Amino acid sequence: MSTREELSRTIRSIFRPLLAGTRVSDFQKKFYDLQTVKLPDTLLVHDLEELCRRNGGFLTMGELYQEELYGTHGYYAKKSNTVLTDTPSRWADGIVAICKEFGLTHCVEIGPGDGSLALSMLAQEPQLNWSGVEIAGVLREKIAEKFHSAGRQYDQLVENVGQLRQKDAALYLFVYALDSMPPEVFINTGKKTSAPNALLGVRIQNGMLQEVVLSHKELAQRKMSLAKGVMTIGDERIDLSSWHLMPQQRAYIPMSSLVLLSKTVSRAPKGSRICIIDEFRKDKGAYVSPHLLVPRDPRLYRRDKTNIRQNYEHIGTIDYYFPQYSYSLQKYLASLGVSCVLVDSEMALSAYMKAHHKLPRKPLDTESKTQCFITNTIEKRKKKVVYPLRPEDMHTHSSWEW
Ligand SMILES: C[S@@+](CC[C@H](N)C(=O)[O-])C[C@H]1O[C@@H](n2cnc3c(N)ncnc32)[C@H](O)[C@@H]1O
After folding, report:
1. Does 267 score more than 90 pLDDT?
2. How many angstroms separate the CA atoms of 154 and 143, rounded?
3. How far does the centroid of ligand 1 lie from the alpha carbon of residue 190, in Å?
């Protein structure tokens, strides 16, 4: 970014809130300062305190969200809180047709919820083999019960991809699952616009939560490091250097879904493909958020949850989800060695496939908020792994950020 652009962004960041009648100091405090918040007295908060204590006195934001959503007393542990979509009725024909078109006889579904889509597919195509990877124990029980009552069998039903023993090429299916996986929160603690240089975490003690910038030593305790915008988690290295953040600006980057996709690509048998159906972000310009990719709360009109304090005060009561930029995900997959051969509106595509039982020869609608990606076959190639910020942002940052 040029010095002129940077200067213009800085001036804008000072004057916008003033013009809106907000004092800069109040604005800074609300959106950019690290927060200290009193948490509600709940079983989840007790679990989080204990988790912190056992893990070096801190949690990464990803760990916090993971427990908040999928922990023993997290949002999804309550049977009544299961969040399912209406995809089975729309997509069962489509997925069966995709498998047939690519000659795949096995479907591995990641984040299958209660298994409704699987059973609808098997009702149409009993020869299809199905395996599920579902993190929530309550849902794995539901899937087993539903298969039993329907007199159907699955190949494997496991908690994580590492437990899969997949031998034959398969369609690896992610239906509204990637955006349910918690991000890590990156921040730029420097004085100039730059790539993220630190990760945020929290300390929780005696019912108080304190946001902290994690030290290199603390990151190393989680087998993580961040240098020059390149994030390392275990043996995964992801280049985030194009995420230019303003000082104190945060970016919620979906590390767990990126790592899961990388593991899927490296473990899937040759000839497999990936199919992703999900919500993506297209909100350039219209709505201004001080941070990038903030969590979404389905109960809100605009969905984006910008009030950081409230996130903590209502901990465990909201089914946050985390859509990412379609462009970033497509480029990431390409850098893993699997480019998308089809990107289309999931609604238009499911309707087309219901009617024609095959893939269209040209895209139907690429502007949709919910999209379907299908990749080429996995051939175990891996290049330099990048997760770039979508191209529009690289040029128009200043027009839509504070
Ligand atoms: C919004 S629900 C969608 C469920 C279903 N695919 C549907 O469309 O109705 C997200 C699902 O992903 C699961 N999930 C979240 N993180 C996961 C992970 N790391 N591995 C496997 N499943 C996960 C959740 O438990 C839940 O079943």
Report:
1. yes
2. 10
3. 36
Do residues 277 and 174 make contact, with C-beta atoms less than 8 angstroms apart? yes
Residue 340 domain-assigned (yes or no): no
This prediction has a pTM of 0.90
CB of 113 within 6 A of ligand 1: the answer is yes
- pLDDT top residue among 218 and 8: 218
pLDDT at 220 over 70: yes
- Determine whether the shortest distance from the Cβ of 87 to ligand 1 is under 6 A: yes
135 CB near ligand 1 (under 6 Å): yes
Location of structure tokens 């996130």: 311
Question: Tell me, what's the pLDDT at 26?
Answer: 74
> H or E element: which one contains 340?
strand 340-345
User: For residue 75, what are the domain limits?
Assistant: 3-81+180-265+277-326+383-400
Residue 150 lies in a domain: no
Distance CA 173, CA 276 (A): 6
Q: Which atom of ligand 1 is nearest to the CA of 84?
A: 9
